[in-house]
Amino acid sequence: MKDLVQRAERLRADFPLLHQRHPSGSPLIYLDNAATTHKPRAVLQTLERFYTTTNANIHRGLHWLSQEATRLYEEAREVVAQFLQAASPQEIVFVKGTTEGINLIAHGLRQVHFQPGDELLLTAAEHHANIVPWHLIARDIPVRLRPAPLRSDGGLDWEAFQQQITPRTRLIAITAMSNALGTEMPVSAIGALARQRDIPFLVDAAQFAPHKPINVQEWCADFVVFSGHKLYGPTGIGVVYMRHPWGETLPPYQGGGDMIVEVRWDSSTYAKPPQKFEAGTPPIAEAIALAESIRYLTQKVGWDFIQAYEQYLTDYAQARIEEVPGLQLFGTARPKGAIWSFYSEAVHPHDMATFLDQAGIAARAGHHCAQPLMEALQVPATTRASLAFYNLPSEIDSLAQSLHQIVHFFV
Ligand code: PMP
């Protein structure tokens, strides 16, 4: 274990932001990685290098700068395809983030797939990004959301999930890892069920992607979405994987430059996917920097280290938080990612997060954009500590120490 911690300490040198101090003078302890992660120097340098040496618009220019920018952008698509084990880079669409990605899919399915009375099967742990876009559809076509319940330990109730698949189920859309609980869902098992029944299957991998490797083919997924900024990459870039031939089937999400073959006053024809879904100037530098964050993660840090060390951190955090009297810990089901949500009857989560902040600890309090889940847990909100491979056991010790002080103060 000592080796893993030493490796994490060395990797921290790659993240300039982690070396700042909180205004109170305390070292900054960043435990809000589920909201967004910090960026390694390699990613920051890629952004700077792009703007200082290669900046040009893509796909349209015949000059060398534009060609070079296009080459890097399309190379980024290949890096993402490989990261997801997609069959082809043509199945990768760049978007702004997970939220835009799910809206793009929902917009397309509304036009070519859903009928009144159709059902969408989700889990009770969905982020609002995988709830509200379907509500927007339901305004035009009355479809019904059916959330499958969780067990009391936060794991998916598998029997109930299977029972909720009906002849009206026209989409299964689940998070691979709950952003509030860290719980991992049985994605491959759900994908196999969906494929057997010919039901399209969408996976929200926003939280899963930074913690565990993805194989979209093993998942039997039709759609997978994630955000670059949670994967040590920039904001403003995300990914939609669309299994072939969904890219052909779905209509464009937005119209404009770069997504057409021909435009006349009375109609236009569209380019092939993925260009068909990338109207206008895309986030070029961000896509190229996302590819760099993937290279950093998979080549410099490595999944073996990430998984072994984050497992250790998760267990360590559980043990330390469980020692705090009166704290209720949610989402103990395994397997789980390095995210812990907790609640004390004595302290409102917002007060808890404010006290933690005074100790230099960045944690999140609120409903975590998962209000239906909070309702199921019967709490107004929780405090959440979410970890990354650059966090240290000593930071968890500081969290536990502050939690002891806060609970002692309020009780
Ligand atoms: N889904 C999950 C599970 C998330 O955790 C988040 C971000 N909190 C989102 C979707 C939305 O991601 P973004 O804000 O990057 O679009």
Summed up, what is this model?
By secondary structure, this protein is an alpha/beta fold.
What is the SS-derived class? Answer: alpha/beta
- Cα-atom radius of gyration: 22 Å
Count of discrete domains: 2
CATH fold name of the largest domain, please?
Aspartate Aminotransferase, domain 2
Cα end-to-end separation: 36 Å
Label the CATH architecture of the largest domain. 3-Layer(aba) Sandwich
Helix content: 25-40%
* Number of helical elements: 13
Which stretches of 5+ consecutive residues score pLDDT under 50?
none
- CATH homologous superfamily designation of the largest domain: Type I PLP-dependent aspartate aminotransferase-like (Major domain)
**Largest sheet geometry:** 7 strands, mixed
Tell how many strands the DSSP assignment holds.
Answer: 15
Can you lay out the helices and strands and say which pair or pack?
Elements: H1 2-12, E1 29-30, H2 41-54, H3 64-84, E2 92-95, H4 98-112, E3 119-123, H5 132-140, E4 144-148, H6 158-163, E5 169-175, H7 187-197, E6 201-204, E7 223-227, E8 238-242, H8 246-249, E9 260-263, E10 268-270, H9 284-301, H10 303-322, E11 327-330, E12 339-344, H11 349-358, E13 361-362, E14 364-366, H12 371-377, E15 382-386, H13 393-410
Parallel strand pairs: 1-13, 3-4, 3-5, 5-6, 6-7
Antiparallel strand pairs: 2-8, 7-8, 9-10, 11-12, 12-15, 14-15
Helix pairs in contact: 2-9, 3-9, 4-5, 10-13
